Amino acid sequence: MREQIEAAFEDRVLLEMQEYRRPVHDAIAALDSGKLRVAEKVDGEWRSNAWVMKAISLYFTIAEMRIIQTGPFEYHDKIPTKKNLAAAGVRVAPPGTVRYGAFVEPGVVVMPGYVNIGAWVGSGTMVDTWATVGSGAQVGRNVHIAGGVGIGGVLEPPGAMPVIIEDGAFIGSRAIVVEGMRIEEEAVLGANVVLTASTQIIDVTGPEEVVYRGRVPARSVVVAGTRTREFPAGSYQLQTALIIGRRRTSTDQKTSLNEALRQFGVSV
Fold it and tell me: Burial code of 156-171, b = ≥16 C-beta within 10 A, e = fewer?
């Protein structure tokens, strides 16, 4: 399957033959059932699967536009919504949407939010109202994605690392996490935190600052901040993120989260 997808990605003419179209459909079905993932943790390190991203791109090429009816609602798209949610043990409140080709474990709750193709969402996770889990994003177990959060997606270039939210993290309202950012286990992002690959994430808890890029360390409590930068026209404040504390490991996750929010005054 992988070899045929790789070949078809390089030469789209091959998609005219059923023997190359079928592996694409099989790959998306495997994503939908959780047998394949866009990225996975191997020996403690996250690795992306470029050929799986290529399969998703090819699926957009071969899928046909059609009318999709859900009760009184009508859509016009290439990709249907996910089916058999009750059997999967997943709660989706209308008009929340999980797209075909995304995998959600039993116990996931999706309010009127959106989970896109290629995403993986672990059990016990809440995708709250108007939150978006983008294409290929990997969200762990017992994560809370608060209202209006934007978890970015990625399909191109194939092999690019998707956004990864590890187990037990809390993503506060209207936060934005994009460009392959990794939020490590049990970290807390306050409201309106914006994280990109180039965002400075500054640990201000010690006598000297420590700057991270591309990841938020495990159990960090992060709030939106600014940093002054000089330009020819003058001094201006650029957005950054501040690590102002750590969640304690001596208490359970729920208690630890509540304490962190109270102790550090994090808006959610």
Answer: eebebbbbbbbbbbbb
User: Distance (Å, rounded) from C-alpha 71 to C-alpha 255?
Assistant: 41
Residue 90 CB neighbour total at 10 angstroms: 21
Write the pLDDT tens digit of every residue in 1-35: 999 999 999 999 999 999 999 999 999 999 999 99
DSSP-based three-state secondary structure for 111: coil
Supply the DSSP string of 132-174, one letter for each residue. EE-TT-EE-TT-EE-TT-EE----SSTTPPPPEE-TT-EE-TT
* Cβ-based neighbours of 166, under 8 Å, separated by 6 or more: 140, 182, 183, 184, 185, 186, 187, 218
Q: How many Cβ atoms are within 10 Å of 8's Cβ, its own excluded?
A: 24
Residues near 148 by beta carbon (within 8 Å), at least 6 away in sequence: 128, 129, 130, 131, 173, 174
Residue 255: pLDDT band (50, 70, 90) is low
| Sequence-ordered alpha helix ranges (H) in the chain | 2-10, 18-33, 50-62, 85-88, 253-264
Question: E strands of 51-131, at which residues?
Answer: 66-70, 73-77, 91-92, 97-98, 103-104, 109-110, 114-115, 120-121, 126-127
Helices and strands counted in the chain (H then E): 5, 26
Contact indicator for 145, 164 with CB cutoff of 8 Å = no
Instruction: Please say whether the beta carbons of 147 and 121 come within 8 A.
Output: no
Q: Residue 235 and residue 161: Cα distance in Å, rounded?
A: 34
CB-based contact 119:134 (threshold 8 Å): yes
Question: What single DSSP character describes residue 64?
Answer: P
